[in-house]
Amino acid sequence: MKELVARSLKYQAGRVQVLDQYLLPHEETWHHCTSVAQMTSLILTLKVRGAPLIGLAASLLVAYLAEQGHSKTQLSEAIDELEATRPTAVNLMHCMARLRTALQQQDFALAVVTEAERLFEEDCALCDRMATLGAQLVEPSDNILTHCNTGALATAGVGTALGVIHHAARQHADIHIWVDETRPLLQGGRLTAYELARWQIPYTLICDNMAASLMAAGKVDKIFVGADRIAANGDFANKVGTYNLAVLAHYHKIPFYVVAPVTTLDIGCASGAEIPIEQRAESEVTGVSGSFGHCQWAPVQAQVYNPAFDVTPAELITAWVLDTGVYYPQDVAAGVLGTV
Ligand code: MRU
């Protein structure tokens, strides 16, 4: 496989390496990944996370195993196992489907490696196109609110919603970003804040429940978020808390944009009701874990509800920024997502 380098995933010197996103921003630790069990665990614990990145990391691992001489059956089992790690982000299913097709070739090892390289490089190009299109929606001095982490850490390129913000900031140095901390796993507070600081884009971190009063005070001009799966009717799943923002944006008449590559579309899902939502461990809500260990604040017996994602209905979305164009409600209602 050729050398591939992204912000949190690389194939270098014959090794698949991933940046541990759970330890960021305080520790930059790279894991050298050689087995399905190891990659599965990295994905389940969100050390490897973000819809496009999950699919790409799994793909590079399968390609690495192909290079190591694993049989067709072993590679097929690896694909099945990796695909089952996280059920909502459809990019993973998209990547695994592409590798399954490659596996049918006579020289399946070469075909799988080539396809994994292609997936990685395509993602960089998709990010650039989304960022360029989305940045045109941003105006000087905009205050933009974003949720979770959708940047270079979550993709092979510059990111989705945060990629738009990156490109917009190069055109308008005076924009400012409100960063939702994104409970329970704090991808905003840990990762988006870290990326914006590195890019020298002015930002202010808020707790998720502060967004409403900011909007009421007229301090949010636009909202840009990413997606883990977009249904044919435009409904989409993204990090839990996204739907709250969409409802608030609607009430306060603030434009609400979703940014995603075509690999996040699932036209097999007619509406958001068909998107499977991952449920996660109670311990993520009753406390917090990190390099410092685990800190529990809720009573040990506390009953917990912990969906990783929620669904935002199409009627609350101002526009869908895909790599193929910016689509408005009338386009989506006319079925454009089935044709891009
Ligand atoms: O659980 P995570 O951290 O993988 O969730 C990530 C998100 O919800 C992102 O918004 C989404 O994957 C789009 S990232 C480019």
TrEMBL record:
Keyword Amino-acid biosynthesis: yes
Transmembrane helix recorded as keyword: no
Residues at the site labelled Transition state stabilizer: C148
Catalysed reactions, as listed in the record: 5-deoxy-alpha-D-ribose 1-phosphate = 5-deoxy-D-ribulose 1-phosphate; 5-(methylsulfanyl)-alpha-D-ribose 1-phosphate = 5-(methylsulfanyl)-D-ribulose 1-phosphate
Regions that span the bilayer: none
Residues that hold substrate according to the record: R49, G50, A51, R86, Q187, N238, K239
Protein's name according to its UniProt entry: Methylthioribose-1-phosphate isomerase
Species of the source: Pseudoalteromonas rubra
Lineage, opening ranks: Bacteria, Pseudomonadati, Pseudomonadota, Gammaproteobacteria, Alteromonadales
